[in-house]
Design goal:
Helix content: 55-70%
Structural class: alpha+beta
Largest sheet: 5 strands, antiparallel
Number of helices: 36
Radius of gyration: 37 Å
Length: 786
């Protein structure tokens, strides 16, 4: 930094003496208490009295190569302490003057008490007129040069600032926070908070966690590798991102110092940085949120969107650092080990803060992934109740989830997803969830575009599975297969993709392909899905005894995986097919067994009500239907699909076929074909099947045949559900009815069609269990027709 102007060991200014040898500051002979670091800063400033000392010079002299946070905020702290000790003020300084963007200057007169003294001030002698003219001309020339230089500097600064601004296409990587406080509560927590705060911005484009994990894998690093600035920089480069944001937190006395720095990962330039001080640990989230808002503006976001989308961080998350720490751990573990593994941490987070909307939403999403829809519904509702404690982006997601999964108002959910996309057009989950709503409405053609947009924004295994299922529902089997191949080529895999591969193999009668997918499930928490799929396939072929055995294994596996709701649904599936195949007493028992496992679960009750109705258990069916109608008066699928099917079946039981047909008028395409999320099949088309049965009972063979044919024509929706195999029998019976009620050529043609359909059904069940009532009936009907 060069030699000091003053060489004495003891320097006096005002009533103070600075003894550099004794490392003391004295006032009127009494020692003044001052911390070592502020004393060092004061010494440098006093030794260079009258000179501007830049912040960079102070850093080199005092902090060397320590982190930018310790230096910037440490220096601010030191200056404040010096002014406090000297009784100085920043606005009217008597000792330390601040020169914005330049540094500091010690302005009080200083004299040395040893070895040297201050140079004496020299008065200004009168100048001659000629000298004054020369001096005036010199100052004019200097002023002109200064104007030119300032113009050049301004142009350079403008260009530099422009180069440091981001565009909406630039992606950012968030590095881990450097925590030098020794307090573990900041580990992972501040990174999560920073991510939430930055995610409020519709301008900034954060690299998703799934992309980061995939990139770490390509770097031959574990998925849970800590993103230090060096590793974050490499991830940033490999993904073509523009910059990474590094944060740090340090303790300085009783205060906490926070720093943020955005670094261009291509050349290492600092694009922007922010520092803040929090007077206590409880104020850190507030300080971080305010710093992040300023950083957003520096990175190029308009002030309008910064102000519009800027809920204070402690309101957008939780004021409890401990709750945020538990949430961060839960989300991290869930990403690494699956949704079940992180659940205990998330549940603890909402115990610590019962108003933690994001915590409830994360729990609900994990339960939903585990197909525990009843539990998911409970926590989605709690998240919605606390949505005011969330950012604008989170509010949109929470509201959409509420309409989609709690009230079941699909139209309102779709409208909210559209609003989400309008505000955050790069949020791939919004497109994927919007597509899901269209699928539940049976609008698969409308679902395809947002699903593909979601994939364009972020290739993800679950989105590939959704697209494959959408293509499957539209009978575009080759495209569905190609979609899954694309996912697997990118090392993306999940039980959802395997479910769809199994369905494709079943439709193509590829037993080896089905076996391959079942093998993949072995030993995994989702193994109960494989057993259920196998049970459906065995029942489809008339092997009811094997189906029962596999259903029990599915139930046991689900319970072991803490998925009781799944297990109950597998029982209700079994009850429905038992009733359809003519085993009414077993159907009643199985339906009651499933219902008692998870009382109150909507998904279980919906299937149980229909199973009781098909088993001719009017009392239980009507009781459950009334309960569902009262609890879910607005839910689209409940009111337009499940309850009409149950009521129509009850009407059929009363021999009221016309009433059954009228009841099912509310259950018409496209909702009738809507995806049902509670079962492995996309949809069994129960209303269509019951409508076909009602037309048979009413003696309308043509209309009945059309209904059963719908099921056969939609194998991409029905998969291996029992309705798919009994639809062949339904077509046979409908044509046999036409043969009996027609004359001449029409009767002959109908009889031929009936014989063909009976042959198809009996071929499917050629090795079926001989004791099934419906099989005995079918054989008798076929023999009579011949």
């Amino acid at each position: 930094m060069g030699s000091p102007t003053l060489s004495g060991k003891i320097l006096r200014f005002g009533p103070f003496e600075l003894d550099s040898q004794a490392q003391q500051l004295r006032r009127a002979g009494a020692v003044v208490r001052i911390q070592p670091q502020p004393f060092k800063v004061l010494s440098v400033l006093v030794w260079r009295a009258g000179q501007i000392v830049t912040r960079e010079e102070l850093r080199q002299e005092l902090w060397g190569n320590e982190t930018f946070v310790d230096f910037e905020q440490g220096l601010n702290y030191c200056i404040r302490q010096i002014r406090t000790v000297l009784g100085d003020e920043a606005q009217t300084p008597h000792y330390v003057e601040t020169l914005p963007r330049r540094g500091y200057r010690f302005v009080a007169p200083v004299r040395a008490l040893e070895e040297a003294s201050l140079p004496a001030s020299q008065g200004s002698a009168p100048k001659e007129k000629a000298g004054k003219k020369i001096q005036r001309r010199l100052w004019i020339a200097i002023a002109a040069v200064i104007v030119v230089v300032l113009g050049l500097v301004a142009t350079y600064v403008a260009k530099l600032n422009a180069s440091r601004r981001l565009t909406e296409k630039d992606t950012l990587v968030i590095a881990e926070f450097s925590n030098s406080t020794g307090d573990p509560v900041f580990d992972d927590t501040l990174k999560t908070a920073l991510h939430v705060s930055l995610s409020q911005s519709p301008f900034l484009n954060l690299l998703p966690e799934s992309k980061i994990r995939a990139t770490l894998k390509l770097m031959a690093r574990p998925a849970d590798t800590s993103l230090t600035p060096a590793i974050a920089g490499e991830v940033c480069q490999r993904t073509g991102s523009k910059a990474y944001i590094a944060g740090a937190v340090a303790a300085l006395g009783s205060e906490y110092v926070l720093g943020l720095k955005a670094v261009n990962c291509q050349n290492g330039d600092t694009l922007a940085q922010e520092q803040a001080t929090a007077p206590a640990k409880e104020k850190i989230l507030k300080a971080l949120g305010e710093s992040t808002s300023r950083l957003r503006s520096k990175l190029g976001e308009s002030l309008a969107t910064v102000h519009r989308f800027d809920v204070p961080l402690y309101e957008a998350t939780t004021p409890s650092l401990e709750a945020l720490q538990a949430y961060s751990l839960g989300e991290k573990i869930a990403r690494e080990k699956g949704p079940s593994a992180g659940m205990s941490y998330l549940l603890h987070a909402v115990e610590l803060d019962p108003n933690f909307a994001m915590g409830y939403d994360a729990i609900a999403a994990n339960y939903y992934t585990l197909a525990e829809t009843g539990r998911a519904r409970e926590y989605f509702a709690k998240s919605f109740q606390n949505r005011e404690h969330a950012s604008e982006r989170e509010k949109l997601e929470i509201t959409a989830n509420y309409y989609a999964d709690v009230t079941g108002e699909l139209d309102k959910a779709i409208q909210t997803y559209r609003e989400w996309i309008e505000s955050y057009p790069r949020d791939y989950p919004a497109y994927n969830d919007l597509a899901g709503m269209y699928c539940e409405q049976g609008k698969y053609e409308e679902s395809e575009e947002p699903t593909r947009e979601s994939l364009r924004l972020l290739p993800d295994g679950s989105v590939y599975a959704n697209l494959a299922n959408t293509l499957l529902a539209m009978q575009r089997f080759d495209e569905a297969q190609q979609t899954i191949a694309q996912a697997q080529a990118q090392k993306l895999d999940s039980y959802l993709l395997r479910d769809t591969l199994y369905a494709l193999a079943f439709i193509r009668e590829d037993s080896a392909g089905m076996a391959q997918q079942l093998q993949w499930f072995e030993g995994k928490p989702e193994e109960n899905f494989a057993y259920s799929l196998s049970a459906d396939t065995e029942a489809y072929g008339g092997h009811l005894a094997k189906a029962r055995e596999l259903t029990q294994r599915a139930l046991d596996s689900a319970i072991q995986a803490d998925s009781q709701e799944n297990g109950a649904i597998w029982l209700e599936n079994a009850a429905l097919r038992e009733a359809a195949f003519g085993n009414l007493e077993r159907a009643k028992q199985t339906a009651m067994r499933g219902y008692k496992m998870v009382p109150g679960s909507e998904a279980v009750e919906l299937e149980a009500a229909l199973a009781f109705a098909m088993a001719d258990d009017t009392r239980n069916a009507e009781s459950l239907a009334a309960d569902l109608n009262k609890r879910f008066p607005l839910e689209t699928q409940t009111q337009q699909l499940w309850l009409p099917a149950t009521r129509a079946q009850l009407a059929l039981n009363r021999k009221d076929a016309p009433g059954a047909i009228r009841t099912l008028q509310s259950s018409v395409p496209p909702v009738e074909y809507g995806e049902i999320n509670s079962v492995a099949n996309l949809s069994c088309l129960y209303p269509t099947y019951i409508r076909g049965e009602a037309y048979l009972a009413e003696g309308q063979g043509v209309e009945a045949a059309a209904e059963f044919q719908k099921i056969l024509d939609h194998s991409g929706i029905v998969w291996n559900c029992w309705t798919g195999t009994l639809a062949h029998l339904g077509v046979a019976r409908a044509n046999a009815l036409q043969a009996r009620t027609s004359h001449g050529a029409d009767a002959d043609s109908a009889r031929v069609r009936a014989l063909g359909a009976y042959k198809d059904f009996l071929a499917l069940w050629r090795s079926g269990d001989s004791d099934m009532p419906i099989l005995r009936q079918a054989k008798a009907e076929y023999a009579k027709l011949q």
